[in-house]
Amino acid sequence: MRNDLHGLEISQKDLRKLTNLPVKDELIIISNPLKEFGKKIINKIKGSEGATVIFISCSIFVFSYLIFDIIIRLFATWITMPSWLLLIILCFWGGGITQIILYVLWWQRLKILHKNMTNSLEILLNDVDRYNAVIKAIHINDQIEEAGNPEVIIKERKKVIAALKLTKTDLIRALKTERILRENKNFIIQNTELFVNNLATLTAMQVTEQATEHGRLLNEALEIALDVQLEMKRLQTQR
Known about the structure:
The protein is mainly α. The protein has helices at 12-19, 31-46, 50-75, 83-116, 119-146, 157-183, 199-204, 213-237. The radius of gyration is 26 Å and the shape is flat.
């Protein structure tokens, strides 16, 4: 990703901080991290450090098994099952219990989100998705250009980036305002600067060439900003 795109995206972490809600929280499937770990190990084995990785992995596995076997022999002499089979069963059992706990925690967070979800917040989150999609589209376009296709270059790139920065500012302001009103329904907002937006500046930057790539991107940013302005007006009427 080019330097001018760094920091423009509104991440999941940013959304959680701005809304104080578990926004876009996904259920963790315990097998997925294990698969990723396995892929990393395999990639390292294929590399120059393959022998070292295999030795360390086998050493950890054998050492862990020996410790487990000693514990079973000392404190669970009544178990007649082979220790290696017991270890496998315990791993599956522990994995299942862990997955159930993760599901319960995820479901509780989902309930909290649904309970606090407002119409304005839902619209703003959709606008954030559209905004991030524009940034991703620019990044993909940059990759196509770098692959040897100079004809796809985005003209007036600085204007597009400037428009996205203004849009991000308005989105963050709107999300902050929505959170204040949601958490303090009877509170009259004193900080009027939250309602100041850069829509006029963004509109002035809009190009007239609808068919050009930079014009399309600017128009997309403008449409998002218009949605944000509408939601800001709705939020103001709730004071």
